[in-house]
Every structure is written in structure tokens, then in C-alpha cells.
Design brief:
This protein is of the alpha/beta class. The protein contains 10 helices and 12 strands. It folds into 2 domains: 134 residues, 3-Layer(aba) Sandwich (Rossmann fold); 135 residues, Rossmann fold.
Amino acid sequence: MKKGFGLIVLGLLALLAVGLVAGCSRTSSAGAGQQTGATAQQTAEAQKWRIAFLAKGNMDVFVKNISDAALRRGQELSDKCTVTVFDAEGDMNKQIQQAEDAITQRFDAIVLIAVDYDGSAPIIDMAEEAGIVLVGDNTTTNNISKVTYVGSDDVDAGKIQGEYLKTRLQPGARVCYMMGPIGVSPQIFRKQGIEESLFNDASMNIQVLEEQTANWRRDTAMSLAEDWLTKYNNDIDAIICQNDDMAMGALEAAEAKGVKDQVIIVGVDAIADALKAIEAGRLDATVFQDAAGQGAGGVDAAIKLLEIGQKKMDDVWIPFKAVTKDNVTQFM
């Protein structure tokens, strides 16, 4: 009896063991199935190129337009890539830290709108050392020749402003010049362009009363223009601005003082507000810069470089175009 009872117990234990193993196998099988699905999704995501878009400062309407265009392009190419925008808010040190973060997080490529011509240059060296593709976009650095650049030649923007103003100003005209942050490539090269085309033209003999930065900002530009108009008793023939946000600020100041008819105001970028102001006859001119083309172009260049396994290809130049009341509807 005891022996028989022992055999029965052993049999039951064996059946229980088989049941437990079978139960574990089912659980394990179901888990494996779920894991395989998750792994497949992770693999699909891992196969997408991860692009870090380092914007110099989205408080500038034009820069935000570029960033938004880059995000849209990322969505259009969502089967190939993801685009993450980092906003440096005009702070060079913050942009360098964001670049370091992108490298640490192992992004595949960086698209850089540099905060500063000299100060942001180390980002290109950092990316090169880390083996990460880098594309310069919209603004340049002093070592931009090492990478692919997508954007426009800022010297041309200054020249276009200068050639337009030659048709509107008399020799000896008195002008004030409003710039972006000192040391960024558009500030440097747009100034070079207008100097070559207008300020250094002996036949025009332009008197440059003031040159100051308004840091791309509309409110700062309005205050600065108010100061200039007061200081020179409204005796200013033109306020020339390196971007449209500043031009719109200068326009508001001139209109508030009731002297807009006496002052020619021009900008650069062809943002929506500026185009509407030109159409209405308030703002005199701007220079079209293709934000959508630069944003999408930066992403496209990064993907192409990743696909061909190279760090540099030919630069992508997007031309500037003069915008006046005669042709403004083409750009709206």
C-alpha cells in the first residue's frame, strides 16, 4: 500500500511538472510573439535616419519658417527619417551644448543654422570628429567649406538692396543701417554687399549716419528707429534693415511719427508681414529668401549624404530675389 501510494504520488507530481512546463511554454511563446512585434517596430524605427536640426533662434520669424519647413520635410519623409529641432534662442553656448547633446544621443546627422560665424565653428569640428554628417543651413561659419552648405549668398542680399536704393535715393542721401547680431554671417556679408553696391559708390556719396544692431528683433528695431528719427529730427532718407522683422519695427516707428512718406525702408527675407506691407504701399522693398527651400533642402542634403556614405557634396545655392510693389504678388 505504501509502495503503491508512493507510485501514485510520483505520477501526480510528474503530471504536474508536465503541466507547469507546458504552461511556461505557452506564456513564453506568447511573450516571444509580443517581443518579436515590438522588436520589429524598434528595428523599423532604428532604420530611420535621425536628424538634429540646430536652429539659431526661432524668435526670428524667418528662422522659425526654416525650422518649420524642416519639420514638414521630415514628416513627408517619415519612412526615411525623423527630424528634431533644437532652438538655441540666439545663444552660442547653448547651441554648442545642443550639438554635444545630439552627438551624445547618437543622431545620424546635424543640420546647423549657426548662431555665430566664429563661435559656432567648433560644432563642425565636433561632428567631424564624431563621424556625424553635418550640413550648414542659412548661415555660415568660418570653416563652412568643410561641409555641405544649403542657403543663399548673403552678399547678394546686400547688393540687391543697394541696387534698389540707387533707383530711389539722391546722391548725398542720409541713411541709417540696422543690422543683425554682430558676428553672425548674414550681418557680416549683407553689410559687405551693400557697401560694395551703395555705400562705397563715389557717385552716390551716401552719408551713413548710424550703424547699429537690433538683433533681428522687431521691438528693438522700433525703439532704435524712434531714437534715430528723434536724434536726426526726422531728416533721414532711408532706414536699411538686414531682415524684415527689423524693417517692420522701423516702419512702425516711422508711421507713429508720421514721417513714413519721407523715409524709404527696406528689409530682407520676404516674411508674410513684410509682403502684405509692400502690397499695401507701406514698406518699400524686401529681398526674397526661400525659407521653405532652405529648411527642406537641409534635410534633403543630410539624407543624401547619409545614403551615399559621404560627409560632403556640392553646396546647394538658393538665389535671393528683389521684391517691390511691382512684383510682390508673385511671392505672396
